[in-house]
Amino acid sequence: MPDRSQYYTLGAFLLGVVLTSAWTQQWSSSPSRKSRNRQRPNVKDHEGSAEHDGIKEGIEGCIGNTPLIKIKSLSEATGCEILAKAEFLNGAGNSPKDRVALSIIQMAEADGLLTPHSGDTVYEGTVGSTGISLAAICRARGYKAHICMPDDMAIEKSDLLLKLGAEVERVRPAPIVDQKQFVNLARSRALEHTADPNKRGSGLFADQFETEANWKAHYAGTGPEIYDQTDGNLDAFVSGAGTGGTISGVALFLKEKLPGLKVVLADPPGSGLYNRVKFGVMFNTKEKEGTRRRHQVDTIVEGIGINRVTQNFEVGRELIDDAVKVTDDQAIKMARWLVEHDGIFCGSSSAVNCVAATTLAKQLGPGHRIVTLLCDSGARHLSKFWANKEVGGSEDDVSLESVLQP
Ligand SMILES: Cc1ncc(COP(=O)(O)O)c(C=O)c1O
């Protein structure tokens, strides 16, 4: 008999290969195996998981991609579609400043200016929102935060900063020429830290008013998101400006794609930006000697309005087509309107944005689509803007005409 043992061995080997491959395929595609993969990912799975399974890489992963909400009451009343980017849903500090704070920290890390857990500390002068975002992201990435802010801002903002473990200095509002002005103070505190041999790490001045990390965060994030969410179908973008990073970054991105888009500044009382846009001059009548009240910008509104030229506003200024002045009274009434009609409980700058967006809708006439921002929640403004006796709780409906009445 011929020796066939080598054929038997080869046949057995091939059968083994076929069975093993069939088994592996069945095993890896079974639902139980898939869920086991999710629970115990290897490094490659883990990196991909953020995208594929909706898992976010830490709190930083919850920044950006905010929803665009149709404000139904204002849309119905004007015949325009008034859409608001829900920036209060950014997941770290709950405002558009999350994007900026992350951008500043990432740029500093890339430049080797920050090392986690080394004692490195981020210093910033802010009316609150940027500080809250920085404080949260610093915690997440192993840094400390030191925030200088005017002492007339709502107390809940500094309370929140303290709970996040930031060091907080509340200082009297002062003009920018004063070295104790909150932004100047933050800058000098950062320098003092770096020079102090008894302190661990270095001080980094975040510099939100001047750094390009600010407008670039909106150029790379907020702008493209608005474009995608509307399929590029929008007529106007309306925003207030504090540093100017939001309006400049969004305008720079959107106007490249949509040259016919109208970009409109919403400006609160006491701010010089309205005149800067309309006439090229930074001036506010409240600036006249002896007429200014205590606030740095003479308004109950927090976060927007300014009386000096900043790099972040200037970089997009030429792209701003128009400006709308909004009074404190209009903002307060709009905030109440949004609660009563839409269940939206927003802060003061968001209310200013909505007044300006609605005013613009009335000017443009029905059929237009206008995008604005809801920056932060009313919860950040309970002790000041929302403490005003005219706001909230009432069953009496205000008419939109009375909201818009200057
Ligand atoms: C609540 C709120 N809304 C709007 C803004 C203005 O944004 P920007 O600084 O990009 O002009 C700020 C700025 O701090 C803010 O705190």
Can you put this structure into words, describing what you see?
The chain is an alpha/beta fold and 406 residues long. The chain has helices at 5-29, 31-39, 43-52, 72-78, 97-110, 129-141, 155-163, 182-195, 212-229, 245-257, 273-279, 311-314, 328-342, 348-364, 400-404; strands at 68-70, 81-86, 121-125, 144-150, 167-171, 203-205, 236-239, 262-267, 322-325, 369-374. It has 3 domains: 35-63, no CATH class; 64-91 and 214-404, Rossmann fold; 97-205, Rossmann fold, CATH 3.40.50.1100. It contains 15 helices and 10 strands. Helix 5 (97-110) packs across helix 9, helix 6 (129-141) runs parallel beside helix 7 and helix 13 (328-342) packs across helix 14. The protein is globular. Mean pLDDT is 87; it is low at 23-50 and 288-295. The protein binds pyridoxal-5'-phosphate. Residues 95, 97, 127, 129-130, 240-246, 303-304, 347, 349, 375-376 line the site of pyridoxal-5'-phosphate.
In short:
This protein is an alpha/beta fold and 406 residues long.
